[in-house]
């Protein structure tokens, strides 16, 4: 008989999210099953549903975690450091890894068909977009430049998403340093 480890509710929830993320990274949505997660975590089916209510809610919790782990909080940094911190976070070795990008790709594919995930995506994306916009606006202000921060933020986010997608499909297509350079090249004409 397997030995059960008692964890606090918060610890158990975090463990299940970690296992769910690992399952997504390994085999996409087909590996994100109650049985697989329970087996890997060494818990009962009821415990998963106790902590999340449904697999859709668990998928949303995994999405929130991957956002939190990938996109740094830029608000407390000085204006000149915010965009570089963003690029460092998104293109960090763990975030720009094949496993993490495979999980992102799976999650993006599920946004359209999972209402709980769609709601979480909207929450997370609004915060992310606002952080990028505010970082661009702060840097522009610090440098005495006038920019359309909303539009430039949208362009930067789209470039980042495209670079991540390409890296997921072919890890040799672009390095983290080249991805950061592409983002800097996009911003340079506007921010100096």
Could you please describe the fold and organization of this structure?
- With 192 residues, this protein is mainly α.
- It is built from 9 helices and no strands.
- Helix content is 74%, strand content 0%.
- It folds into 2 domains: 9-61, Homeodomain-like (Arc Repressor Mutant, subunit A), CATH 1.10.10.60; 72-191, Tetracycline Repressor, domain 2 (Orthogonal Bundle), CATH 1.10.357.
- The N and C termini lie far apart (64 Å).
- The model has no long low-confidence stretch (mean pLDDT 91).
- It is elongated and about 60 Å long.
- The protein has helices at residues 9-27, 34-41, 45-52, 55-70, 79-90, 98-111, 115-142, 149-169, 176-191.
Q: How would you sum up this structure in a few lines?
A:
It contains nine helices and no strands. It has 192 residues and is mainly alpha-helical.
Strand content: under 5%
Profile the largest sheet: none
Helix content: over 70%
* Stretches with pLDDT under 50, minimum 5 residues: none
Please give the domain count.
2
Layout of helices and strands:
Layout: H1 9-27, H2 34-41, H3 45-52, H4 55-70, H5 79-90, H6 98-111, H7 115-142, H8 149-169, H9 176-191
Helix pairs in contact: 1-2, 1-4, 1-6, 3-4, 4-7, 5-7, 6-8, 7-8, 8-9
List keywords for this structure.
2 domains; 192 residues; 0% strand; Arc Repressor Mutant, subunit A; mainly alpha; single chain; 74% helix; 9 helices; Tetracycline Repressor, domain 2
């Amino acid at each position: 008989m397997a030995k059960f480890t008692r964890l606090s509710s918060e610890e158990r929830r975090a463990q299940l999210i970690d296992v769910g993320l690992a399952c997504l990274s390994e085999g996409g949505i087909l590996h994100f099953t109650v049985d697989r997660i329970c087996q890997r975590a060494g818990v009962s089916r009821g415990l998963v549903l106790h902590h999340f209510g449904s697999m859709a809610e668990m998928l949303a919790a995994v999405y929130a975690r991957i956002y939190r782990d990938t996109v740094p909080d830029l608000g407390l940094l000085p204006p000149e450091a915010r965009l570089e911190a963003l690029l460092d976070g998104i293109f960090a070795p763990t975030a720009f890894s094949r496993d993490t990008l495979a999980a992102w790709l799976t999650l993006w594919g599920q946004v359209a068909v999972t209402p709980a995930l769609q709601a979480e995506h909207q929450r997370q994306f609004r915060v992310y977009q606002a952080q990028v916009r505010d970082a661009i606006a702060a840097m522009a202000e610090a440098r005495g430049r006038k920019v359309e921060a909303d539009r430039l933020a949208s362009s930067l986010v789209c470039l980042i998403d495209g670079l991540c997608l390409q890296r997921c499909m072919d890890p040799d297509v672009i390095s983290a340093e080249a991805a950061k350079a592409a983002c800097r090249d996009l911003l340079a004409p506007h921010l100096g």
